[in-house]
Amino acid sequence: MRIIIEEMKKIFHPVMLLLFLVINLLMYYLFIDFDITVFPNGRPATDMYNIGVEMVEKYGHELDENELKDFKIVLQQEIKKADQYIQSDQEFAKLGITSYQEYIDMANGEQRNEEIEQLSSRIFFDKGVDLFWEIPQRENIIEDMEFVHERYGYSYIEGKLTDKQEKRIQEIVQSGTVDAIFPSYPVEYNFQTISQSIAITILLSVIFMISPIFIRDYKNNMFGLQYSTKIGRSLFMKKVAAGMLSAFIIITFLVIVYYGLYSTNNIGIFLDSNINSFMGSVYWYDFTFLQLILMTILFTYMIILSMSLLAIFVSSICKNYISIIGILLPLFAIVYWQVKKRALPLEAFFITRSQWEIGFIYSVMIIIPIAAIHWKLKKNQSTDITE
Amino acid sequence: MRILLYEIRKAILSPVILALTVIFLGFNFFLIYVNSNIKDDLLSINQLAHTYGTEINDEMLQEMKSNYEASLAQVNDITKKAVSKTYESMDAFYSDRSFYVPETFSEEEIQFFNYTSLLEFYYFNSFHLEESYLSFDPIKIAEYEMKIYGISGPAAELIRNQYDNFVERFNEVKDNNEYKHLFPAQSIWDTHVLLFKTMFKSLLIESLILTVLITAYVMNFEFDRGTYLLTYSSKRGRRLWLDKFYAALIANVSILSILMVVSLTVYFSVFSYKEFWHVPISSYFNAGKEWFMSWWNLSFFDYLAAAVILAYLLIILFTLMTVVLARWIRNSYLVFFTFLCLFGVIFINQAVFPSSSILFLLGSFTPVHLILNSFVWFMQRALTFTAYYESITVLAWFVIFLLAVLYCANSFRKCDLK
Description:
The complex is a heterodimer of chains A (387) and B (418). By secondary structure, chain A is mostly helical. Chain A has helices spanning 2-11, 14-37, 45-59, 65-88, 90-95, 100-107, 114-127, 130-146, 148-151, 163-175, 184-210, 215-219, 223-227, 235-262, 289-317, 321-343, 345-348, 355-382. The longest helix of chain A has 29 residues, at 289-317. Chain B is mainly alpha-helical. Chain B has helices at 2-12, 15-34, 39-52, 58-83, 90-95, 101-104, 107-127, 129-134, 138-149, 153-161, 163-175, 191-219, 221-225, 228-231, 240-270, 300-328, 332-347, 358-362, 367-372, 389-414. Chain B is elongated. Classes of the chains: A mainly alpha (387), B mainly alpha (418). Chains A and B meet through helix 2 and helix 16 of A and helix 2, helix 12 and helix 17 of B.
């Protein structure tokens, strides 16, 4: 244990810690900051978010038939308010508009109407009247709910569904899971980008910190000394353990920091909502948003620990720093691409994603580094000390 | 001389550098491959340009018109027979959804249709060229961009002071008919972005990575290997540092050349530019979302050459930067990551300044911004308000880093090796 601690002290060298801090500040500023400070991002994202909050507060995490009726009543009230707004507004009066419906008919009319367009732009962008932003969103939500049997799950899948996908969609609709209130736009979208950025940031930080683990000893000609001590060649596994433990500590620290920052996005109210909501997409498993976040963190751990083990292996076979960077760079690019495209739960559990593919990717991620370290361990036990 | 050669060999023949070069080349080929769907279209455009010449004038328009009308008549003959309908334009033909084109017509006919619609596209656009070009207004664009980026105060003043130059150049392009040339239209084929953004940016980033690796490797070789006490006390002594410096420069330039020559050769053999080498880059058809005219009257070939030269200058500049870092940090691993951080810090430097300050504008005068925006090099843009944006940036940073390297070279002669 003492050796492991001493090894970890070497990993957390002050100079490395300093650069670690700079890298994280930069990555935070470049990739994460935006999704935290600017959430919800503009309109109608803000309106969707507000409606979502209102719904959860009023109806709980699911919307049943009675509540849908109530929601429709709210919409009617909103439209009435919009009518009043229109009636009391001079500009509408000038165009002879007396109700919201008339306004919508004119705005969506066949002919382009310069005056209406100018008025719309004033109402929507200059004044930013909430009512006019919210009503279309409420209408969309009601429409989604009413047509849930016909449309849910189909709208964003190209081509034909497989039997399994069809069955899964039916299962969600039949069981009533689909009634969940979860405004996937903007909450889920925001989580998707931010969880990817967090994973990439942590990945880079961890690789940076632990990659020099073996090469430092090689550079200082320590192997001869180390191999002839009482612990001898089994030091290899101790160093691997120290590296993995450090990686674990760094990941945990950064996960707490970054997800702590993420929690300031005020998404707490949706944590118990199911993600297979009529307002969102279809996934293979029934997760609540909280479970989804926890799964994402778990997957982040798996990806980064796997890459750490690989980095430790690369460190043990390289003879100079440049080769480590040169080898890790393409590997980093591959993992980066996987994280962006399919490795994290939101993409991995999406209905169009084959679960075999994800299983395969994660098996590869687990098996290859372990096999590599195992090979190196075996080789290490019999290799000539002068090599 | 022999030492220099050995130093260069050490860098270039290092297996990691070689392997990375090959991977990067493979990646560039991949980029070309995934975008190769436009190559047949480009061939047709070349053919078109060959028939009519690239310069757009009344004579050429007349010829185009008669050919287009003849082709359209032929198309209408075919469609009359097949679906008993005639069309006013190819656009109308393709928007008719009452039949399925590949089933109704033969391969040959479809090819003819495509040719006609291409001719139509270029004829119509060339016909309205003057109007379209005059609809650009550099001042309006500048005001819009300033609004988007929230630029105000002295910074906005500085840009507004340049409006005369904007307009002058705009009128120059208008008067000498630089914009009246055929070129693959950017709204459809996006070749400018493909070549100068996708290809150039990856070329630049790839060779930047190799530059930092090679420079850190060569400069710190003796410290990494623990042979520094030996080598720096030899007869050659500390002058070896200069040899290493030259070796790094030569190696980086060679690697960039390899990447550049191979990738661009493949690019131009896949995508034909046969007729367009001497078309001015400010051609209306080359206008994209973020640019529409160059500050200089450059032909496509000149523009490409200028971009290549600028790429070399940037790589040399980044070599100098890494050399300075490697002088003070004797661990190539840390050099690499420090460089990354420095790159990032320079990239976000504008965050420090309020957007009303002139420093905010000057904050984009860095090699980092240059290397990340290769597709708008030498183009007229509001935020990089002067025609000499590239020259000023490169020159200023060269002066800074040459002085820094000189200082490093001097200080290394007497520094403590431990």
